[in-house]
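Quick illustration for those who missed Monday's session on complexes.
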Amino acid sequence: MNILLISPNTLVIPYPVYPIGLDYVAGSVSPEHEVQVADLNVVSLEKLAEILHDFSPKIIGLSCRNIDNTEAGDSLYFISEYKQLVSWLRYRSKAVIVCGGSGFTMMPEQILSSLGADYGIIGEGEKFGLLIDAMENGLEPAQISGVISSASSTGTWVPEPWRGRSMRAFRSSASHNRFYLDKGGMLNLQSKRGCSFNCIYCPYPYIEGKKHRLLEPDKVARMALELEEAGAKYFFVTDSAFNSDITHSLAVAKAFKAAGVSIPWGGFFAPVRLPLEYFTVMADSGLTHVEFGTESLSESMLKAYRKPFSVPDVFAAHQQALDAGLHAAHYFLMGGPGESADTVTESLNNIENFKKTVLFFFFGIRIYPNTTLYTIALNEGKITADTNLLEPVFYQADNIDRETVESLVTARVGNRINCIVGSGGSEGAVTVGKMHDRGYIGPLWEYLIR
Ligand code: B12
Ligand code: SF4
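Prediction with cobalamin bound:
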């Protein structure tokens, strides 16, 4: 059977992101089938029409990674584009259309019906192989747990962690690799799935599971080497929080070194209390960029968000990263339950104590189903069970509105080169794009460090 996997994600803010999810979906398909990947960052619609004609796929898998850009002040919404793409595909192909991805998993029924696709896989894409087998054997795929169809309705659904075989089908010869290698040299890598923390607004534990499922450090390192051999100059570890299992993350870093991985890398980290040598080991294995999910420097807001650290922990982790010679950035998420002019000012006062960093500010927290923030917003009457959350809805704090949070922050730090609203917007992406074209590698926010 011919299977076409499409990545429709052409967003270049903050930079283009290699469609790693499709490598796992492709890896779930047994070898008797032929799989082609069309990444719309490199494949034009004209070319896609040719592929549909010549390859004539029986099944098309569509990756829905992003629903929107989660930036309240500069919102981009992608579902309408995916819907147009599905209609376009329907006009040219009789293939069964299956969607999946992290965005899809958060609101599967709404996305399936908005797009007009045939099936959707909630959670991990490894079930795609089972769906193909079912179709080959004339069985109804929607009978597989986690698979929904336009005809079936699931009600509340928690994705079950995939316990079967998982294989990343990374092909160094894939035609779309060149695009990412030319635009910053970045490929990506996963070392585990799941996050065991409980931050109130965060859908990651729902998407990937609350319990960690760890990949063997040696295998992760072998994949890192494969990426390097394929020409990567940098890799990003896509784990929700790389250090949420400290022991495993240290073992992975040591495995990178032992395997001879020699390119720099980055990832998301929680600024929790860490062993003293933690970032030295990381730096020794090639880590260069630490992206801390700090979110606030107000003690009461950290508690309200149920972050697993306090303000002093943030500064301690930051200093440890600097001492190890690393670049450290902090993300802020402002406007959650309990935010007020006082808590914003407390965060801003504490920010003055940072040395050598870049700060990314997100104003307004998007409400996702299956999070504590959803329940809070529901109980506070800010949303109802019928509120459509697919088009982004942001939490509104009682004591301060989003615009006031933003104006307090911009009045204080808006003219600082190291304070960015959102992920930098299209202007930032143009600058990053130009630098990538000149051969600079990685996420490049280190040039803004002050
Ligand atoms: C790492 C990450 C980043 C990194 C990526 C770095 C890199 N070089 O790869 C950075 C920081 C750059 C980033 C940026 C953004 N991100 Co981001 N990111 C993530 C994160 C943590 C992991 C994504 C990942 O790669 N996972 C690993 C792979 C293996 O998993 P996967 O892609 O989900 O694929 C699996 C399944 O989903 C499924 N699957 C995938 N495709 C398909 C297709 C089919 C047919 C099927 C059946 C299944 C399937 O199978 C795969 C294997 O199980 C997720 C949150 C999360 N935990 O999922 C957010 C997430 C994807 N990001 C999100 C967003 C919004 C963004 C930004 C728009 C934010 C911004 N304003 O800058 C940008 C967009 C960038 C872009 N160009 O697309 C949202 C998307 C949801 C939404 N509201 O739209 C998420 C879910 C976080 C959130 N807010 O909830 N991101
Ligand atoms: S540590 Fe990060 S990934 Fe984990 S629940 Fe909190 S915000 Fe989400």
